[in-house]
Structures are given as C-alpha cells and as structure tokens.
Amino acid sequence: MNILAIESSCDETAAAVVKDGREVLSNIVNTQIAEHTKYGGVVPEIASRRHVENISYVAREALREAGASMADVDAVAVTYAPGLIGALLVGVNFAKGAAYAHGKPLIPVHHIRSHVAANYIAHPDLRPPFIALIASGSHSHIVLVTDYTKYKILGRTRDDAAGEAFDKAARVLGLPYPGGVHIDRLSREGNAAAIKFPRVHFKDAPYDFSFSGVKTSVINYAHTLSQRGEEMNRADVAASFSDAVTGILSENVTKAALSAGVGRVVMAGGVCANSVLRGKLEAAAKKHSFELFMPPIPLCTDNAAMVGSQAYYEYKSGKRADLTLNGKSAESIE
Ligand code: KG4
Ligand code: ZN
C-alpha cells in the first residue's frame, strides 16, 4: 500500500511516499529554519505563508522522486495535530483536496505518534510493545506503546519541553535558532562537570520531567557573570547544561523500562538527535540489557516519511477522516 504523506505542523513543509509503513520511496523536506533564525524562533504567520507557497511543489517532488503518480497512491495521510494551527491547516487542506480530487481515503496522523514511527522505518524488525522516550521542541513524554495505535503516557514534562530548554539555553549562549544542535556541537569542547545545574525528580511521579529550573539556572548563571564583568566559558555551560537535561531524560526512561519490564526502548523527536543523550542511553541499554532503537538523525526531526509510516498502521486499525477534518493545536497521543 502506497501512502502520500504530508507534514506541516511547524516550520518544515514535507511530503513523502511510503510503502506498507516501512519502505520510504521518497522523502522531501523543505525547511524554513534559515528564515525563522532571524527572529530567534518560529514566527507562526511566516510558517503558514511559506507552507502555502511550498506545499504543492514539495508534494509533486515526493511523487516524482518515488516515480509515482496519484494513480499509484492508495491513500493520502496528513499531520492534523498537535502543532501551530495555521501551519497544520495548510497541510490538512492540501491533503483533503488531494484525497477528494483523486478519490483516495484520507488518514489523519498525530504528529508525536509519527515521531515514534520514524523507528519503524529505521528498524524493520521493530514491533510494539516498547517504551518510547519522546523529546521534541514542544513535547517530552515517556510512553508505553502497547500496539501501533495504543499508547499509555507514563510521564510527561510539567513545564518546558526538553527541546524548548535547549533552544532557550542556546539563546543565552548567543547560538542561532534552533539551538539544540549548536549546543550539542559546543558541548563537545566543554567540561560537563564544570557547573552543577539542577536536576529535578518527582518522588510521586518518577517518570515526569521539569526543565524550567535548569533553563532558568542557565539564564541566571549568564546574568551573574555578565554583572560581575566575568567571561563565561560557553562550552562548559553547554556541556553542563546538556549533561543535566540528558541525565534527567535517560534516567527516567531507564527507570520506566525497568519497571515496565519491557526490554525495548525507542527514542523519538528532535532532541533524540543529541549525541550526549544517545551516548547515555546506549550505556544504559548495555548496563541494564535492554534493546535500544533510535532513528538516524534526519528522521529524528520533522519529516513526512514518519507520517507515512504511522499512517499505514492507523489505516489498518480503521482510522479514516472525511472532508470535515480540522487541524488541532493540542491533542493527546493516547
Ligand atoms: O521534533 P522536532 O523536529 O520538532 C518538534 O516537533 O518540536 O524537534 C525540534 C527540537 C528543537 O528544540 C531542536 O533544538 C531540538 O529538537 N534538537 C536538538 C538537537 N537537534 C534538534 N536538541 C539537542 N541536540 C540536538 N542535536
Ligand atoms: Zn516534531
């Protein structure tokens, strides 16, 4: 089954053709990062406008690269939630138009579910159940995935998402948006033990996260040094900050995996591109003998191949949308 998948939830306009949920025939991503960098973050109105300008071209490219026409496509899938509402609506309306014009079923896909599905592409033998650590620019969750479309949230952030904390800390260090990848690079030159940033754990909710404290600590640290007229060692801050955030993420997901007795852990979302986090989870997997799955870096951040993968399983479970489908800025993964 060939699915044409569309993704426009944030600042990437993306389209892909995916066969049977696992085989990527094409994967086109048009990123707007260079434009949003000027403003230090995504400007929703600009994102929506660029999606409108790019989406037809990106979808056509996806078909061309797959060597397919709409006649070869069995269904159209689209990210409908969560995300920036104006951005989502561009993809949703485009997909509705394509499905209606060509008489194809329309499959609505949850963005965070699709981040998890990036692993089905990278690891053909991976099947639920597993524990998933989902860490992106707007979400931080630990989820028990019992089946392709069945999720139970075990833990979540109580304030900022991990990626949000990375992006704010990067701003303090004078690094461009989105800052996660720049902190990742800079941290390799620093000493992770140089500064003790707070690591919050909750006794009553061992899988929950809080990142606002560590984010505020970085801001205060930079402020104090600048008031004293002292030079900040940016690499040490980047390394110590990364160590704190990735420590919380990896410790909590390890606890969840051990307590759930599920021998498989899956990483998903943009922050899972982080080299320190990948290293820590690899070490934890070795120590506690669980299998670890992570997508290659280009499949960690937003793309439509992951949407096409998840869409296949949504379709098989009977999920369909009609032309009343709407975008939703917030929606639980469960
Ligand atoms: O999943 P994603 O592409 O978009 C959302 O759905 O939010 O995640 C984007 C987030 C940004 O906050 C970005 O800074 C972060 O992922 N990110 C990273 C790295 N690469 C991307 N954070 C830490 N280290 C990285 N290497
Ligand atoms: Zn995303």
Q: Could you please describe the fold and organization of this structure?
A:
The protein is an alpha/beta fold. It has helices at residues 33-37, 44-66, 85-102, 111-122, 162-172, 180-187, 212-228, 234-260, 275-288, 297-300, 305-316; strands at 2-7, 12-19, 23-31, 75-81, 106-110, 130-135, 140-147, 150-156, 264-268, 291-293. The protein is globular, with a radius of gyration of 20 Å. Bound molecules: 5'-O-[(R)-(carboxyoxy)(hydroxy)phosphoryl]adenosine (KG4) and zinc ion. 5'-O-[(R)-(carboxyoxy)(hydroxy)phosphoryl]adenosine binds at residues 10, 115, 136-138, 163, 166-167, 178-181, 184, 269-271, 273-274, 301-302.
List the helices and strands and how they pair.
Layout: E1 2-7, E2 12-19, E3 23-31, H1 33-37, H2 44-66, E4 75-81, H3 85-102, E5 106-110, H4 111-122, E6 130-135, E7 140-147, E8 150-156, H5 162-172, H6 180-187, H7 212-228, H8 234-260, E9 264-268, H9 275-288, E10 291-293, H10 297-300, H11 305-316
Parallel strand pairs: 1-4, 4-5, 6-9, 9-10
Antiparallel strand pairs: 1-2, 2-3, 6-7, 7-8
Bound molecules: 5'-O-[(R)-(carboxyoxy)(hydroxy)phosphoryl]adenosine (KG4) and zinc ion.
